[in-house]
Amino acid sequence: MHDLIALVIAHGAGLVFVVTLAARLGVPVPAAPLLVIAGALAVGTPNGAAGVASVAAFSTFALAIVASILGDAAWFWAGRRHGYKVLKLLCRISISPDSCVRQSETFITRWGGASLVAAKFVPGVSVVAPPMAGALGMSALAFLGWETLAAAIWAAVLMALGVVFSAQIQQVLELLSTLGVAALEGLAAAVLAYLVYLGWRTWRRRVFLRALTMARIEVADLRALLDGGHAPIIIDVRSDGGRAVDARRIPGAIAVALGDVEARVAELRTLAGAQREIVLYCNCPNEASAALAARVFANAGFTRARPLAGGLDAWVAAGHGTEVFSPSSFSSPSPPGRGLG
Hints:
Layout: H1 2-24, H2 31-43, H3 50-82, H4 84-92, H5 97-111, H6 115-119, H7 129-135, H8 140-164, H9 166-179, H10 181-211, H11 219-227, E1 233-236, H12 240-245, E2 248-249, E3 254-255, H13 261-272, E4 278-281, H14 288-299, E5 305-307, H15 311-317, E6 323-324
Parallel strand pairs: 1-3, 1-4, 4-5
Antiparallel strand pairs: 2-6
């Protein structure tokens, strides 16, 4: 066991650097537990090697910060360069792609640079926060400052946990070193538990998607309504952060964030009645936000509220023009019968 600890002390800093960098780039590797173990070994080293352990702990702490900055800086640069496309890519490969963009937008716009600190401890947001910050126009200097602070706090908290629970962690390591096959069985059980968790999350997402099953309106049908003089009310349900990243809109669309839809239902009923066609769109996987908003309208008695299949991307891909949001377009729906083409 002592040899194992000595090996980790000798090479642990490099291992932490590699694993942390991979984790910040989005690879599902256990960077946090590794830092906790590094903190535990820093205070529980045998044979009077406390000085060596202290140097190793400082090296581990410093390299964890550098690795975190490098990984997040890569995503920050990608967000600055490619904007919303990078966010959608990250969210499509996440466990909960339907809410990933929306949650990340809310997180960044509400907390600003401080969100980079909090994001380090929020699964599902930690990898998305840096490119979101880049897409929203945070300066490189501000990002570097907040990211350095975030990485330092993250590494310090995890290593401090290791210090606090060093005795228990050392006992576990001692036990694992003597278990042999039993240790492998325990590892297999942990992997199985993780797979069960993934299965549960997948099942929850399927239930969520089934709850949003409803008729969509195709881009061609929306275009036909506009060209035929039967303009629907078109509502962009993206968050303010989403529209800041991508200010394009379908011509004539009004901005009503998903969280504000219920409060605006009565207003829209007064202006247009419950029978006018309502088309809602977002820029999220499975039109999740638009479908949630359409369900709010349906529950309020609107009979013709539908999400736009494919959202804003599908509209643009079909070759139709867009406008840029102006302040007035955030509140006033187009009058009945107005052509928006």
